[in-house]
Please model this.
Amino acid sequence: MNDIEQLLRQAQVELAGATTSGDIAAVEARYLGSKGTIQALLKTIGSLPLEQRPTFGARVNEAKAALTRMVAERRAFVEAEELRQRLASEAVDVTLPGLPVPCGRLHPLSATVRRIKEVLIGLGFEFVDGPELEDYEHNFEALNYPEEHPAFDEQMTFYVDDSRLLRTQTTSIQGRVMCQRRPPFRIATTGRCFRYEAVDATHHHTFHQVDVFMADEGISLADLKGILRCFASAMFGEDVQVRFRPDYFPFVEPGVDYSILWHGRWLELGGAGLIHPNILEHYGIDSERYTGFAFGLGVERIHMIRHGVTDLRNYLDNDIRFLSCF
Amino acid sequence: MKVPVEWIREFAPVEMSADQIADRLTMAGLEVEASEESDVGIVLDIKVTPNRGDCLSVLGLARELAASCRIQFRGRQVVPSSADEPPDAAAYTAVTIEAPDLCPRYAARVVEDLRIGESPAWIQDRLAAAGMRPISNVVDITNYVMLETGQPLHAFDYDTLTERRIVVRRARNGEVLTTLDGVERLLNNDMLVIADARRPVALAGIMGGAETEITERTRTLLLESAHFDRRCIRRTARTLALNTEASYRFERIVDPEGVVYAADLACKLIEELGAGRPVMGVVDVYPGRRELRSVVLRLSRCRLLMGYEPSAEDVTQALERLGFGLVQVDAGVWEVRPPSWRPDIVREVDVVEEVARVLGYDRIPERLMTGLTTRGTDTEEARFRDAVRDNLIGAGLQEVVCHTLMAPSDLDDPSPETQRVAIRSALSAELSGLRRSLIPGLCDVASRNARRGLGPLAFFEVGPVFAVTRDGTYLERDAVAGLVSGRTTPRSWHKLTAEVTPFYVGKGLVERISGQWKLELRFQPSDDPRLHPTRQAAVTLDGHRIGVVGELHPAKHADLHLRERCVVFELLLEPLRLAAGVARPTPAQLSKYPSVARDLAPRVPMDVPYEDVRARVEEVAGEWLAELTLVDVFSGPPLPEGTRSFTLSLVFRAGDRTLTDADVDGVVDRMRERLKSELGATFQEAG
Model:
């Protein structure tokens, strides 16, 4: 009997000295293996007196179970320790830079156009595209520009020939829409425009505009003010205020110049007004029944205000340092 | 227009500071862009919109200010010239208008006993404040009256006029006039001149002639106050590149009814200042008198357009203060007669704007439109452009936006079928035409960033390119182009050293785009002179060429300051978009059976393009082929010279059963046989 207890104590000592999973496997084989101590003890059972056999057998089996448990416990401990050591040895310097995965970005003008579209599409506006290489008819004539009028002086134009030019304003889309659509409609467009301008921090011969217009029954300057407030809030924050001043554009009457109150200052954003009845009538739309508004503004201007950019030239210069700011 | 505030106050006696006046004018649509101190107090610089020529005058501005402040406008009292007492002006001169379409009215007065000298300080100071140079008492008075009334005047030396009479006529082609600025002007039949009996003496409405100019010796003057056709003045001023204070006003609005008033005011000032003795009477020829039109104004229309209902009293007072005549014809309906200085008021809506303006745009409420809800959408073209942008951003490229206008460039599209769209009378090479390709812009961006020592140089642009075809059709087509120069794996301490041939970097980007929409592109060697002759490919889709990919010709690198090789690609978007719409696969039933993998490694002669191998393998594999990946290309020992091997990793899967080894081996054997017989491929014997 003492042999078995001795055996268990011995095994306990050996297991305590086993510090690797290999050591444990060796101890396990020595005691529990097919040629191990327990098997050897079981083989001695036949040599015992008959009446002692059950007791002895039971004690050996208990010892076997105890040994199995001891091995498992020790193994779990040692393996955990081994894992801990292995993981400890795998430590990285978390401050070293990660694997560089290049990050592409939208140009700030594209990103701004996306935001503009998101807002206006949410308000039920349908975006359309118009050509940059426009005809005189759509850029001026259809927009109620009087012949030989000083209004042209504000739009020094790049002409390709007598009838073809680079659009000076995205408003040129109005005629393209109205010749095939009847009210009610809500239309918006965005794109590039061109005017002869000496290039400086606030002027460029190439710039981007958004143009928005709608026609329906009963549309007034109040609807225009409402939508501009809504649009400006979405672009610049809930607390902006919109201010109207009279202004002149041949294609609207009454004409409006609108500003927003931004950080305590009034900033001019663009031109607006009610669509001139001459234009509606030109396209066979009953101007007594239908009225509409139109407004336009610069994409660059929106981005400049939102991000505090002070030089318009940055947008077409494409310096990586500038582009990566947004 | 620059105006001293005190001058405006003379006619609009408001009790307001200059800042408040500036604010009122601005809110009335006459934007005060600057205000500055001067000898005559605060001077406002006012931007007058092209439709409001009547406000290019102190009187016009004062009228607006008075109306928006709801006070009475106070005009000057000038005794009109009369012919009661002889001698009358008609005894001194005669006016003939031969072109009444271009000159609806011409008035002349005569001043005798002229004493030319300096004008008094108060006139000189006001002129200087308005940005005009004092010259002499008579000239200063004509300018003073122009600033006050908006009516340009001109003074002739009466004695230099042949037969002392005025003829208003079209210039004759080839006629010459030396204007006051000493420049000899060649005239033509589209221009209007003031002539005497013999020759032109002034360019009507723009500038007088040198020979009839007022001098210190002038004893008698003929004062012109006239009205001219604005289109004619504008055309002539533009043709001669001669813009003056007079032409600026005549191009816009001058009040035809104010012609004689201005002449009388000038004569009054000349007399008061002792500069001369005006002869009584005026010669006033007025063939173009127009009936003032009237417009019906409805209160209901004001409400509809303004978004609120003003009171009838507000409406009538606002308009009367601006000089409009009103007759009520019904409740809330008026017949409105705009004043003679407002030819811009033509329709009811124009009158509504006047009402809204005078009552203040601040009174317009805010409202969100109601009515039929419309569906907000973007165009398919725009969505596709955005999807392509997202694709390339995901690949790590920076989007750029480059100039549409550019100088001719050997990096532009060289295709001989089309030509560059040129700008007529371009002012500089940079603005002389439209890009046919996005590649020059990208190269320019890469070059500028490289010179600044910046990187990585990996850019793309999505935008239109332009061309004109041989038959004169103008093309404006959306394209996408990309550029990568230098390392494709960013420099780092991680040991990622394998650099890829730049051509394949560009091709990979093209395939990333086509792959997103599962489009089959073909790449064939091409001969674009911008590109490396043996490292470029034409890209075709369904047999149509849609673009190009290739390494930039090494000769271009130095010009662009690029140290490393550079690959570019450019594709037209519309064919891709249309094909993407068609090729969109329907989601197949996903097979639940396991796959079987095999490698195939044919050795083929060096001149056999990979495409020949791939196409045959795919054809033989049929619908069981789930994946085909080229995992290695090898040449050199131990392979015989002039051969290379491809290692293709193939994955097979059937939709209806588990494939057996025998199934797949049979397919692979057929592939081997096909490649052997058609391409001369050999295979290393298994073992």
Remarks:
- The beta strands of chain A are 126-127, 133-135, 164-166, 185-194, 206-217, 241-246, 252-262, 265-275, 290-298.
- Chain A touches chain B through 89 residues (CB under 8 Å).
- Chain A has a mean pLDDT of 92.
- The first strand of chain A starts at residue 126 and ends at 127.
